[in-house]
Amino acid sequence: MATLGWLGTGRMGAAMAGRLIDAGNEVLVWNRTKAKTDPLVDKGARVVDAIADLGAADIVFIMVSASADLEQVVTGPEGLLAAAQRPNIIVDCSTVSADTSAHVRAAARDAGVQFLAAPVSGNPHVVAEGEAVIVASGPTETYDAVEPYLEQVAKHAVHAGTEEQSRLVKLCHNLYLGMMVQALVEVTTLAEKGGTDRRAFLEFLNATVLGSDWVRKRTPDLVNLDWTPTFTTELLRKDFDLGLGAARELEVPMAVGATVQQLIWSAIGIGLREEDFLSLYVQQARGADMTPEPR
Description:
By secondary structure, the protein is an alpha/beta fold. The chain is 52% helix and 13% strand.
């Protein structure tokens, strides 16, 4: 069994690394804020003091917030590739731009390290329940070596191509998610202002062919106005900026996506930056001259 490393133990990283530990793997962990590794150490992980120490692992997984973070922890002066001992494979599960991913992949290849881009669909709760889905891209032999571990983290893993295809697939996923939520809060606000209780409308919608597991699971949060973050509005903005940047480059019109991007920017402007992105309802309700209240 390979020794695994995990770099980045925020909400998502901790949930994913926890599943690898629960599956019986030996896992080394590092995080900029060391205290965030404590729950994983309690599960049996071994914390290391520096990124370079993760080079003792055969495969190192990464979960960071942004493109610049990925470059820093892999190609920076204290990154994985600068260490005397390097892992055989780096697996990046972050949501970053294809350009950054290609740059990091090339640097890894030059250093004799394999690289797999493997972003994940699912919030920390979904990951913990084993319901996440991973889309990966990179050389087939690299994917084959990592696939058993991906399937310990997620219920399903898909190999989308040999280069950066998974990056765009994940951005398309998050673009659709943001557009879906904006549509949901718009029709919910319309029904509510017309005199239907928000809970009753969502109960009806969830029982129709338009219902989905995600909306059903998040309905209590929307009813109770619980914006405890699973995925913040700020992170959604980052993905819309990246996704619409890719659309411009590929000359794909995204009329709905562009409108939702502006609404996300506006929501951040009224103070919803660190709230769960379902809080787009607040902006929609206020725009309809309603005062959002829990039911």
